[in-house]
Design brief:
The chain is mostly helical. The protein has helices at residues 2-11, 15-40, 44-63, 68-90, 94-114, 119-128, 136-165, 167-172, 177-194, 196-203, 205-216, 222-246, 251-276. Helix 3 (44-63) packs parallel to helix 5 (94-114), helix 3 (44-63) crosses helix 9 (177-194) and helix 3 crosses helix 10 (196-203). It is globular, with a radius of gyration of 19 Å. The model has no long low-confidence stretch (mean pLDDT 81).
């Protein structure tokens, strides 16, 4: 373990690792906050579908020599904004529409990747993430998204929370439900896309879902849920990065497994606590 820590410290001297670490910290905090809303709304499948659909945006960007993060963001946001309109036009549920759009987008992404030279390494990198692939552009994107969240949340957090908890009550109070739905979908889509480089489209949902589940086992108020979820997310990311570097394993996969281990330990701890009556 000492060698793992030493290797981690040595890597801090390299700019690529500094970028990856900072990106991981920012993503953990953002996904932790947005993940609370996702957990409250019971919309885990929505985040997963947007993440997988973003693959099409990445492939389209690479195909037309556009920054893949930008094209993925445009595609994911467009999909998020399209869903409410489709639900209104067709009457189908969100889950049904997501189940339709997810395989179509994934298929479109794989086809586009197959037309690119050396597509398999590129595809695997965006499916499962790559610590070395975090660029300066990704950092600016994450910092911009963090700024948006910092500005929007103090203004909209209470109303977003009310819409998430009780849509009927929010409607009775005169809130414009579609507007707050769009804000949530917009933030979720950008958060998901921002994690594509580091953990990939397959594993990004671990950031959104596992930390809120861990905290919800122990939190006694919404305030604790919002405060502790980013902390657990941050521990998952930093622990996963340290272990992936030390044992030369894929970063995204290790972060997801490490977060899962935290969940298991948290469940066991809760069982013990309940049994002893603490």
């Amino acid at each position: 373990m000492t060698e793992v820590v030493q290797e981690f410290i040595d890597l801090l001297a390299f700019s690529f690792f500094q970028r990856a670490l900072l990106a991981g910290v920012l993503l953990a905090l953002l996904a932790g906050i947005v993940g609370v809303f996702t957990s409250i709304r019971k919309a885990a499948f929505f985040g997963d579908a947007v993440a997988h659909s973003a693959l099409a945006g990445v492939a389209i960007g690479l195909f037309f020599s556009v920054d893949p993060l930008f094209s993925a963001a445009v595609y994911a946001v467009a999909l998020s904004l399209l869903l409410p309109w489709l639900r209104k036009q067709t009457g189908f549920s969100f889950d049904s529409l997501l189940a339709l759009l997810l395989p179509v987008s994934m298929g479109l992404g794989v086809i586009a990747f197959s037309l690119l030279p050396g597509y398999q390494p590129n595809l695997l990198s965006f499916l499962f993430g790559n610590l070395l692939s975090v660029t300066q552009t990704d950092m600016f994107f994450l910092l911009g998204l963090a700024a948006v969240v910092v500005i929007l949340l103090p203004l909209l957090a209470k109303k977003l929370l009310l819409v998430s908890l009780d849509e009927n009550q929010a409607r009775l109070l005169g809130l414009n439900i579609p507007v707050y739905e769009l804000v949530y979908h917009f933030l979720l889509a950008l958060t998901v896309v921002s994690g594509v480089r580091l953990v990939g489209v397959v594993l990004i949902n671990a950031f959104l879902i596992i930390p809120p589940l861990v905290v919800s086992l122990h939190a006694r108020s919404l305030k604790q849920l919002f405060f502790l979820t980013p902390v657990v997310s941050l521990i998952s990311v930093l622990g996963g990065i340290v272990l992936s570097v030390g044992f030369d394993l894929p970063t995204g996969a290790v972060i997801a497994v490490f977060a899962g281990c935290i969940f298991v330990v948290s469940v066991i701890f809760k069982k013990i606590r309940d049994r002893v009556g603490v």
